[in-house]
Amino acid sequence: MADKIRRPAGPTAAERFSARTRVLAGLLAFVMLGSLVTVTVMSFQDGDDSGAADAGTTQVAAATATVVATECPPHDKTADQVLLFEHQPPFCLDASMGYTAVFDTTEGEVRVALDTERTPNTANNFVVLADYGYYDDTLLFRLDPTIAIIQGGSPHTNDWSDRGPGYTIADEGGLFQRSGDGMLGPFTYEPGQLIMARSAGPNSSGAQFFFSSGPEVARLDGQGSYIVFGQTDAAGLAVLEQIMGLYELDPSSPYGGGPTRDVTVRSVTIVATEG
Description:
Elements: H1 19-32, H2 52-56, E1 97-105, E2 108-114, H3 120-131, E3 138-144, E4 149-152, E5 177-179, E6 182-184, E7 193-196, E8 209-212, E9 228-232, H4 234-244, E10 247-249, E11 257-259, E12 264-274
Antiparallel strand pairs: 1-2, 1-12, 2-9, 3-4, 3-12, 4-8, 5-6, 7-8, 7-9, 10-11
């Protein structure tokens, strides 16, 4: 399997696998990858509600009504929380500004510089959702050391069946093309990235995201369709490695395992700076 993640303070989650267990977990990861990160929006792509039934039974009351977002919410978190939209919100980024997403988690802070040049629409989507409080008090619900991902962004269900924000966004950042039942894209992956989850079809990202915490994420290079729209610094990567270090195998989990304690995103705050 993949090279082990080196951590100075004891063995990593990946290093705690037996060889046989790592093979089985790896196979499970790739079987689930068609939906990985499908995670977001199989239920609301082009009006398709085929996946909405499971999510709909557990969604929170605040999300029962859709909202038409016509204005850009402020970055100071004073806007009312919105979890479900009638359609994609407007473009709110200023080309003269840089944007950082600050994740306040129960394991520490992760600051992510958003890529507004290569992926402006993806970055804008995340910024607007964050400003509406979409990601606040949500779990990082999936850890997978075989591909070094930490997945979140599901306020309705806190799992990958989440119905999403009610819309999907267009692919961007390079050439995308169909390959069998999935997609091939232009991205490559390395530790410390913020990446959109998606279903197997085109233009299918919505709100769910994942962080990359180690070199094993390069296994996704063969697909390249998960849109990278941000990068954290060394301090943020250390927090991600710490979170991944909480992983333990759990045969009863739909993901094959998970963290030994809940990892919560208390809030995501957007910081805009000039130039």
